[in-house]
Structure formats: structure tokens, C-alpha cells
Backbone:
């Protein structure tokens, strides 16, 4: 049987362990968000360079010269 001191040490350890796991989950979520944002930015930049879309004077997205071959065109077709 556990002594009172051993019980409180074990309980304290489990609390610290749970906090560590929560912290790791939070870090993983942030890294995942950063990674997906970076991937999206790269796709947007690549598509812009290939003239698959463009931005007008006010910063709104508009279709460009090679829109049919665009990843974003196909994505837009899925959501319409």
C-alpha cells in the first residue's frame, strides 16, 4: 500500500505529466497551423507567378490568363 507521501508525489507527478501532454498538444496544433499556412502561401505565390489568378487594385482576387489549369479553380469548382 502507498504511504500518504508516496500518494501525493504520484498525484503531483501525474498532474505535471498531464500539463506536459497538454502543452505538447498545443505546440503540435500551432506547428500544424503554421505548416498549413506556409503551404497555402506557397501555392498562392506559385499560382500568382503562373498567372492563374491576379489581384485587382483593391486587393480582391480575380481570374487571370491561365485560370483553368489552376489548383484554385478546381478547388472553387468543388465548393460551388
Residues:
Amino acid at each position: 500500500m502507498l504511504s500518504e507521501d508516496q500518494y501525493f508525489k504520484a498525484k503531483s507527478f501525474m498532474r505535471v505529466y498531464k500539463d506536459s501532454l497538454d502543452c505538447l498538444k498545443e505546440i503540435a496544433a500551432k506547428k500544424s497551423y503554421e505548416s498549413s499556412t506556409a503551404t497555402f502561401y506557397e501555392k498562392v505565390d506559385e499560382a500568382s507567378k503562373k498567372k492563374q489568378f491576379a489581384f485587382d487594385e483593391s486587393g480582391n482576387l480575380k481570374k487571370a490568363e491561365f485560370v483553368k489549369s489552376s489548383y484554385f479553380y478546381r478547388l472553387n469548382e468543388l465548393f460551388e
Remarks:
- The chain has a mean pLDDT of 82.
- Residues 4-49 form the longest helix (46 residues).
